[in-house]
């Protein structure tokens, strides 16, 4: 389906001979795969992150299916790096990993068995992205580089600190404020200037708190 970059997070075994014989002509993808220790490391330089999940969450996140994902990806600014996170075969992505995502992706399936296995889910998503690329839709231009996941994570950490030091967040009982703020920022695509502006706001709040 034309995807060349594979990142593997903390695998039990890699390289794995089973992966080689299952690759069916895509050994170049395996040979060039990047192995990292954490999800944060894998997505640090990505501008838009989507996590696959079949379960509903107590605080719902924006959800797309595979076809909607392909449409959104095609409309992102040029040079955007997009990551699609696929979880573990047995229990998928955990809540902390899913909070790193702009959107959650669900693939509709029959209710008697609504969860696809990992390989099938990857194939469905990659197929939709490939098909969307065939229609020749041009990605939009943007005046500033898009913020990466690492940039946004730095903003979230700074915002948490600033809101706590200014007493907006009760350190003893923070509740779900940061989770909801993460969800709010996940619904928009920030550029690097917007992140720096917001970090400036955080610095101002920290001075007020001191």
State the order of secondary-structure elements, H for helix, E for strand. EHHEHEEHEHEHHHH
Tally of strands = 6
Q: For the CA atoms, what is the radius of gyration?
A: 19 Å
State the CATH topology of the largest domain: Alpha/beta knot
Supply the CATH architecture of the largest domain.
Answer: 3-Layer(aba) Sandwich
Range of helix content: 40-55%
Would you tell me the overall average pLDDT? 89
First-residue to last-residue Cα separation: 54 Å
Described by the principal axes of the CA atoms, the overall outline is: globular
CATH classification class of the largest domain: Alpha Beta
Low-confidence stretches: none
Largest sheet: 4 strands, parallel
- Tally of alpha and pi helices: 9
Summed up, the domain count is: 2
Strand fraction band? 5-15%
Strand order of the largest sheet: 4-6-3-5
The chain-level structural class is: alpha/beta
CATH-level-4 superfamily name of the largest domain = SPOUT methyltransferase, trefoil knot domain
Q: What features would you describe in this structure?
A:
20% of the residues are buried. This protein folds into two domains: 7-133, 3-Layer(aba) Sandwich (Alpha/beta knot), CATH 3.40.1280; 149-209, Helicase, Ruva Protein, domain 3 (Orthogonal Bundle), CATH 1.10.8. The chain is globular and about 60 Å long. The protein has 210 residues and is of the alpha/beta class. 43% of the residues lie in helices and 10% in strands. Helix 4 packs across helix 6 (118-133) and helix 7 (149-165) packs parallel to helix 9 (192-209). It is built from nine helices and six strands; from the N terminus they run βααβαββαβαβαααα. The chain has a four-stranded parallel β-sheet.
């Amino acid at each position: 389906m034309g995807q060349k970059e594979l990142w593997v997070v903390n695998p039990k075994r890699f390289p794995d001979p089973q992966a080689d014989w299952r690759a069916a002509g895509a050994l170049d993808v395996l040979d060039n795969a990047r192995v990292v220790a954490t999800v944060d490391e894998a997505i640090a330089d990505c501008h838009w992150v989507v996590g696959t999940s079949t379960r509903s969450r107590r605080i719902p996140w924006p959800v797309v299916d595979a076809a909607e994902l392909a449409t959104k990806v095609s409309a992102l600014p040029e040079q955007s790096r997009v990551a699609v996170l696929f979880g573990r075969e047995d229990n998928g992505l955990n809540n902390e990993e899913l909070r790193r995502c702009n959107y959650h992706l669900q693939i509709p399936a029959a209710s008697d068995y609504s969860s696809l296995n990992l390989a099938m889910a990857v194939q469905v998503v990659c197929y939709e992205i490939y098909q969307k690329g065939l229609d020749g839709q041009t990605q939009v231009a943007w005046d500033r580089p898009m913020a990466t996941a690492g940039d946004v994570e730095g903003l979230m950490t700074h915002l948490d600190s600033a809101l706590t030091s200014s007493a907006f967040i009760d350190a003893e009982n923070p509740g779900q404020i940061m989770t909801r703020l993460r969800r709010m920022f996940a619904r928009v695509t920030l550029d690097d200037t917007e992140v720096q502006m917001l970090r400036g706001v955080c610095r101002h709040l920290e001075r007020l708190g001191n």
